[in-house]
Amino acid sequence: MIDAHHHLWDLGKVSYPWLEAKGVARFFGDPSPIQRNYLLTEFREHAKVEGFRASVHVQVGAADPFDEAKWIDSVAQANPDWPLVQVVYSDLTSPTVESDLDLIQKIPSVRGVRQIVGRSSEEDSKSGTNELLSSAAFRNGLIELGKRNLSFDLQLTPELIVQAAKVMSSAPDTKIALCHAGSPADRSAHGLEKWSSDLRLLSDMDNIFCKLSGLGMFDHNWTENSIAPIVNECIQQFGPSRCMFGSNFPVDSLYSDYSSLIKAYRNIISKFASELVFDKTARDFYNIN
């Protein structure tokens, strides 16, 4: 089994400004319980009990993304019994994008790039990240990733799905993983109906996959019953061969322990689909041996 989306951090080795800021609420809530080191040893302790034996680390806003990438690679090299690959940050709009990617691809554990497109309406209004969808350079960067056999992790909000679909269609040769099922924050019947309808624009593209992850960020009191419609809709639209499970730990540890999270997903996902969602999809997508 492979956890296709989690984070690690060592605050003594890599700086994370958002994580180190005290008394600042984030779109997912109060980060204070996770403002400490979260290392592979702790992650493995909980994941291994549930049958996981490999994982995908996703960049998480380091002050120096290259420092983060090098540190994660050192963790991967030091733990050969736990295959660990990573999705790193790179600015696809940079005029030096090709040389930046050349440097990144020298790191053995790198499989793809995440440049966040959407976090929440409030945070995007400050960061301007959703302006990436209007950038020709960003489109070209996406295409460049495909040429290099690098994937792209797409994090956005439901309001951006329609626009993002148009942009993603320009890079049909780039494998794209939609993070957190597109972050459906509005869990009302109307909100989920709109999310589901727009999601079809992404699921209709064969190169776009879906991560069943991070659903607790917008529903801190989630239950198996409350997330089941979202999980089932994603599997119905993308098919189990294009869906993969990700814990989003330690962020989602704010709302659940690891075992409870896995139990809920196991109960929702059919036995037929489990091997794909919990293993094969991520193994093939991220080329994990």
Q: N-to-C terminal Cα separation, in Å?
A: 12 Å
What characteristic shape results from the CA principal axes? globular
Looking at the structure, the CATH topology is TIM Barrel
Sheet of most strands: 8 strands, parallel
**Number of spatially distinct domains:** 1
Task: Say which CATH homologous superfamily is assigned.
Answer: Metal-dependent hydrolases
**What is the spatial order of strands in the main beta sheet?**
1-2-3-4-5-6-7-8
Please estimate the helix content: 40-55%
The top-level CATH class is Alpha Beta
Poorly predicted ranges: none
Number of helices: 11
Task: Kindly state the number of beta strands.
Answer: 8
The CATH level-2 architecture is identified as Alpha-Beta Barrel
Rg measurement, Å:
17 Å
> What fraction of the residues are assigned to beta strands by DSSP?
5-15%
Kindly name the structural category.
Answer: alpha/beta
Order of helices and strands: EHHEHEHEHHEHEHEHEHH
Give an account of the 3D structure.
The protein has 289 residues and is of the alpha/beta class. The chain has a single domain, classed as Metal-dependent hydrolases (TIM Barrel, Alpha-Beta Barrel), CATH 3.20.20.140. Helix content is 41%, strand content 12%. The protein has an 8-stranded parallel beta sheet with strand order 1-2-3-4-5-6-7-8. Strand 3, helix 4 (97-104) and strand 4 form a beta-alpha-beta unit. Helix 7 (161-168) packs parallel to helix 8 (189-203), helix 8 packs parallel to helix 9 (224-238) and helix 9 crosses helix 10.
